[in-house]
Amino acid sequence: MYEFPSEVEIRKVLLTRREGVYSDIVVELEVDGVFESIFSGNLGNINKPHEILLPETPVVTPPAEGSSKISGKVTFEGAAAQLPVKAFKTDDSTFSAKVTSAADGTYSLDVPGVTSRVYVFSHQEYGTKFNPSTAVAVGDIIRPTEHNGFLYECTTGGTTAADEPTWPQALGASVTSGDAVFVTKRMYLPKIHGPVLVEGESVVIEVGSPSILKGMTERVWPTVFETPEVGNGTEKVSGGVLLPDGRVYNVPANYSRAAIYDPSTDAVAYTPAIGSGTGKFRGGVLLPDGRVYNVPHNYPNAVIYDPSTDTVTEIAVGSGVAKFMGAVLLSDGRIYNVPANHSNAVIYDPSTDTVTYTTAIGSGSYKFAGGLPLPDGRVYHVPHNYANAAIYDPSTNTVTETPEIGSGSGKFLGAVLLPDGRVYNVPHTNSTAAIYDPSTNTVTETPEVGSGTGKFVGGVLLPDGRVYHVPHNYANAAIYDPSTDTVTETPEIGSGTGKFVVGVLLPDGRVYNFPYNYAKAVLVSTGTYPEVPLEACLNPMFNKY
Fold first, then answer.
1. Which of 60, 319, 339, 362 is most exposed, with the fewest beta carbons within 10 Å of its own?
2. What H or E segment, with its residue span, contains residue 138?
């Protein structure tokens, strides 16, 4: 796992081109004179969509006496902030200028002699690594010696203890070290905007806008593109994940093997046999080491496929049939299996190859269908037949329930985390989608989305913040726009019933629809987007079912 250095200095930006378009953005950090690289490219907005660090409204003034200026404002978690702002030239990726914004968030960067485009960066203060028996003052920021994705702000000054404390991983939680007290804060990756032309161009960034860089080369795809046949038979695939090499892994339901589709070659390859029987698995999760966890549905074991060796391993998880539907990667690397018929959720730990059981969650059959990790680390269960959504807290092994969401049976199947932190429940038989707000514990309904029963299975958050609904029985995909509370539809996608289940966003902006009964997978283009960084598409917040 990446560990932030004691002194964070962004020194260089590298843009990688793939097939003629910008794809990945690499940010180099200087650590005691040695360069390290992390992927960024507005990744902060994708990782933590409800709270963002955003250089706002850069305005470039014309050159004066050999000097150019970039001015604007920085906000952090929605408020003006005093933070570092830096610029890098796009023509040779070198560092150009640095300034700290004022208390009201405004900044003005001098970029003398620069007539090319630049990228503008800002990032929160990452503080210092924990030191034992060291004096700290109120407001000091401390990082654990082993990075866990959080920072800790001193609220009571004093001297830290000789031993490092056990750091909580819940926002707002307090921890004491010696006689000093700290509160848990979120750590964000740097935020990037650009390219900005240093010749009087005026650029506006909208807060909560797409999690991608503006101004990058764009590619236009056919609206609907069908792949070669993927597997055969009916109910063959039950979801899947995007692999780190850009290929798409199709989790087998009835099909004997997993199919792997390569968008760069439009070719399909197959794994060895994975499990046996029908309805074997429902969904998959990409493990941090690149392996794929196949979520057991009727099959007694979970199966882990290793793309690097083309081999599989198995471990017993739960009992009975229709046990789980979907899974979530927890922040500590464990796999949370979402219960459908199983009384408990089961958590698999890849580091120890062991399973643990939660307390009972919900009741009845097919109670939940899919889950997603909330930004605070809890797990949201999508209500299918159960009246309410359930939320499990791994830190306390406790379950809470939301107000009732939707009505009837088979209500929702899959969910999407919106950029503002709300949860969008994808309608399966429910006439409308339901949006749950964890901050207020309230539910709102959208206008009607599609019609009929079994209309959609799963959704995908698009780069512009809209929600794509994967068509199952419904003829078209539906697209919901949270900013306008409106629904539009694509042209017809595939034919028949039970066509597709869930989807993943590809780096080229298209949505891969996993084929359930339809012979082929379908890639759908919903607009013209710049290339999305692969690391963003691999984010476990989205790359799972």
1. 319
2. none
Query: Looking at residue 541, what DSSP letter applies?
Result: T
Q: Per residue in 269-315, pLDDT tens?
A: 999 999 999 999 999 999 989 999 999 999 999 999 999 999 999 99
- 211 is written with which tokens? 């999690």
Cα(119)–Cα(475) distance, integer angstroms: 43
d(CA 49, CA 438): 13
Model pLDDT, residue 254: 97
Pairing type for strands 344-349 and 354-360 reads antiparallel
| Backbone Cα Rg of the chain | 24
- DSSP per position, 321-379: SS-EEEEEE-TTS-EEEEESSSSEEEEEETTTTEEEEEEE---SSS-EEEEEE-TTS-E
What letter does residue 531 receive in the DSSP assignment? P
For residues 496 and 518, the answer to whether their CB atoms sit within 8 Å is: yes
Q: How much is the pTM? A: 0.63
Paired strand residues for 391: 380, 400
Place of tokens 């209309």: 455
Residues written for the chain: 545
CA distances from residue 167 to 1, 158, 173, 177, 185 in whole angstroms, order as listed: 17, 17, 9, 10, 11
Closest CA to 81 of 106, 98, 112: 106
Task: For residues 528 and 59, give the distance between their C-alpha atoms in angstroms, rounded to a whole number.
Answer: 25
Whole-Å CA distances, 106 to 59, 103, 213, 374, 400: 11, 7, 21, 32, 42
pLDDT (tens digit, 9 = 90+) per residue, 403-455? 999 999 999 999 999 988 899 999 999 999 999 999 999 999 999 999 999 99
Which residues does the chain have with pLDDT short of 70? 1-69, 77-78, 88-97, 111-119, 147-149, 188-222, 528-536, 540-545
Given this model, what pLDDT does residue 527 score?
74
Edge-to-edge strands of the sheet including 257-262? Answer: 237-242, 248-252, 257-262, 267-273
Cβ atoms of 124 and 140 within 8 Å: the answer is no
Enumerate domains of the chain plus CATH numbers.
Answer: 9-123+191-197 (2.60.40.10), 128-186 (no CATH), 224-537 (2.130.10.10)
The 3-state DSSP class for residue 402 equals: strand
| DSSP conformational letter for 307 | T
The residue type at 418: L
